[in-house]
Amino acid sequence: MSRDKQIPFEAPVVDSLSVRVVVDSHHELFLPKTEHSHVAVENVGIVPGRHMTTLAGEWGLSLHLESRAGGARAEYLLDFGFTPEVLNRNFGFLDIEPGRLNGLILSHGHRDHYGGLDGFVDRHRSAMRDDMQLYVGAEEAFHVRWIPAGHPNPGGESDMLYWGAPDRDSLVERAVAPICCPAPKALEGPFTTGYIERDSFEEVTGGSKIEVHDHFSEAERRGELVFDSHPEEHATCYLVRGRGLVVISSCGHAGIVNSVRTAMSVAGTDRLHAVIGGFHLGLAKPDYIEFTIDELQKMAPDVVIPMHCTGESFIEAMRRRMPDRLVRSYLGSRFTFGV
Asked: What is the largest CA-CA distance in the chain?
């Protein structure tokens, strides 16, 4: 599968973008004030009136995105964490209003990104707009995944654990319309990249296998699980006026370098402002991490904000090689780009 590079595409431009971490693994209560020349950083400490409770962390990711352009505001929820309990708790704690959401976006079909979706819709559907849509990269987002026992450090591939899939029928029943975006798609503020080209040194990572509905290979015809190449993974991006491109890679199974290169090609820009999200380098070897940073340096982002599955080894390498570009992220943190 390859994105048709001949299809003309014009990326929308926004005046500002705020990215709020709704679900991730780590919350720090006592953080010093963080300042950076290219991004405004707000962290969550003790909240007046909420001082008897706190944010909850889990393995997974969910981001609230808010952009402004010409006086108009647009909001999206990108991914939904592992469980609805944590997503709904943090969503309410941060006082995000479901009625203001323009749409929902799912980056790919792994449970730590779609697990809270069904329960989130259950809780908030009545408050959301009537024509709510869920944007996915391809139909494979709804295919059943399996992971090795002991994931992410499997002892072998003989024992596979069922990991499920988003429930398309349940979404449709509640008037949430799935929209497949295999090609770049402009939304109200952001755009999605469509299929992420695989043209760097990077390998597709993740360890999951998938049930294929259309049987083409001999293994598929025998009903065997096949390697999950994540054709459905897409990145969510913004062109911020006067700043450049912000690329949000929720997990980066297709490679963070591939994701950013695809986004820059789609947007028709070589000005990279920020790279945010999960880069899936937690188990990567040191040389692989160094190669990744080599390529990031060439693309020269102003800001790199690693989250979720990126891994401490990458963060430590960034501290050594690109310390002025690195910004740490925590539960509840809000990052604002532009005016």
From this structure: 61
What type of residue sits at position 178?
P
The torsion angle over the Cα atoms of residues 233, 73, 175 and 111, rounded to 10 degrees, is 30
Tens digit of each residue's pLDDT (9 = 90 or more) over 100-137 = 999 999 999 999 999 999 999 999 999 999 999 999 99
306-337 burial code (b ≥16 CB/10 A, e <16): bbbbbbebbbebbeeeeeebbbbbbbbbbbbb
Give the containing element (helix H, strand E) for 258: helix 256-267
* Cβ atoms of residues 137 and 122 within 8 Å: no
Q: What's the pLDDT band for 49 if we cut at 50, 70, 90?
A: confident
The number of residues making up the chain comes to: 339
Helix, coil or strand: residue 257: helix
**Distance, CA of 124 to CA of 182 (rounded, Å):** 28
As given in the structure block, the two tokens for residue 120 are: 């989130």
Strands (E), the chain: 13-14, 16-23, 40-42, 62-69, 72-78, 101-105, 133-136, 145-148, 160-164, 177-180, 185-186, 191-192, 209-210, 226-227, 236-240, 244-249, 272-278, 303-307, 334-338
- pTM score of the predicted model: 0.94
Question: What is the chain's mean pLDDT, rounded?
Answer: 93
Which pLDDT score, from 0 to 100, does residue 221 have? 45
Find all residues with CB under 8 Å of 24, minimum gap 6, and list them.
Answer: 57, 60, 61, 62, 307, 308, 329, 330, 331
Nearest partner of 245 among 222, 223, 265, judged by Cα: 265
pLDDT in tens, 225-238: 889 999 999 999 99
Question: Would you state the structure tokens that stand for residue 185, as one six-digit string?
Answer: 């798609």
Mean pLDDT calculated for residue range 94-99: 97
- The DSSP bridge pattern shows strands 244-249 and 236-240 to be antiparallel
- Beta bridge pairs of residue 134: 104, 178
What local confidence, expressed as pLDDT, does residue 218 receive? 54
